[in-house]
């Protein structure tokens, strides 16, 4: 009596390595120890374990923790291996640790415990990136730059407006991460294999000891559910996708000479000594591929799985932990690159008016003077064919007037003053006039900047 019967069924043979998740389980080693402790404390509190047995198990767990994951030897996974290590230390009573639970609820709890940490670290990384974006925006509130659609020069904007567009997007990523955290933060422990247990356990107590907000109620749902991994992977993929756009913009801007990356965020070539390459941003851009692939992998693995536990599940979570770490690092790197890059205000100002980027402003001016916007658009489009850029305001005004004669059969100056027309050809005037809510005009950007710090602090 009291002698542990070692598992001898399905535990050996050529498939043993294939079955084992012990190496990947390093990611949940700390989580498993926490889960074991909480479970043992609850069992003792409920009188299911003798206090001295519980004490013995807890000290054995401390020794297992001190030895670390690498010291584990026996078992197809970390749960078995830790139990074996406890039994090796204190004898058969160590096997009482697994009373009223299964590896099914145990692993589900471990994954959630570990993922909570990943989600919080990711959320923190987004806050640091948002701070970097806001601080750089504040420095460059008045730095005019070209804005693009289809990568073609479109309308002038400012560095601040551009960077704050990413701050707004990353703020939604923070919110998504925190939402995912809320649904992850529920304890499956005590669901046992799926059918609960006849022992008088207290699931709420283990949930509390492990810092969960509550339990995953239905015991079959508790062991089967991995939708929290779908949500985490989707959220991480969304963040990575947003980051990839930011990285791409910075790569293009570096290429155009609009900014220079700090050496810390660049790399060089092993053969071409003159090269300064934006490698960190390229890796950041590439991380989205890993994250999207992982999301697809998680969904594919889960699709069509029947209730309750199936071993397919063992392969699902390790990749989510990996993209969590990768995208957290990418977020940190993007923040560092933004905070340290030197923007070239002169190159930006020169390019801001390029490609007749103030054409929309001319059409707006004519429409404000009473012409239907479509007619205004037609006049400016007609002129645009012969305007390379609008840096020479006087000759541009003349070309525009000729276009009006062609299209309308009357002079533009029946509608607008020549001085007003020449003025809207200035990219800075264009930016200053676009003061609608959320626009690039300094007042609108000031409004955005005045709320951004408190929004970051609130998150
Ligand atoms: N290592 C397994 C996993 O990660 C633990 C659960 C094993 N349960 C079972 N019934 N075979 O999913």
Automatic annotation (TrEMBL):
Upper classification of the organism = Archaea, Methanobacteriati, Methanobacteriota, Stenosarchaea group, Halobacteria
Q: Which InterPro entries does UniProt cross-reference here?
A: Arg_succ_lyase_C, Argininosuccinate_lyase, Fumarase/histidase_N, Fumarate_lyase_fam, Fumarate_lyase_N, L-Aspartase-like
EC number(s): the record gives 4.3.2.1
Its catalytic activity? 2-(N(omega)-L-arginino)succinate = fumarate + L-arginine
Query: What name has this protein been given in UniProt?
Result: Argininosuccinate lyase
* Organism from which the protein derives: Halopenitus salinus
Its pathway, per UniProt, is: Amino-acid biosynthesis; L-arginine biosynthesis; L-arginine from L-ornithine and carbamoyl phosphate: step 3/3
Primary localization class, coarse: cytoplasm
Domain named Fumarate lyase N-terminal: which ranges?
54-293
One GO cellular component assignment for this chain's record is: cytoplasm
Q: Please name the top-level EC class of this enzyme.
A: lyase
Keywords on record = Amino-acid biosynthesis, Arginine biosynthesis, Cytoplasm, Lyase
Q: Name one GO biological process term.
A: L-arginine biosynthetic process via ornithine
May I ask which residue range the UniProt record assigns to the signal sequence? none
Q: Where, subcellularly, is it found?
A: Cytoplasm
Single GO term (MF): argininosuccinate lyase activity
**Domain Argininosuccinate lyase C-terminal stretches:** 356-431
Record Pfam families:
ASL_C2, Lyase_1
Q: Which family does it belong to?
A: Belongs to the lyase 1 family. Argininosuccinate lyase subfamily.
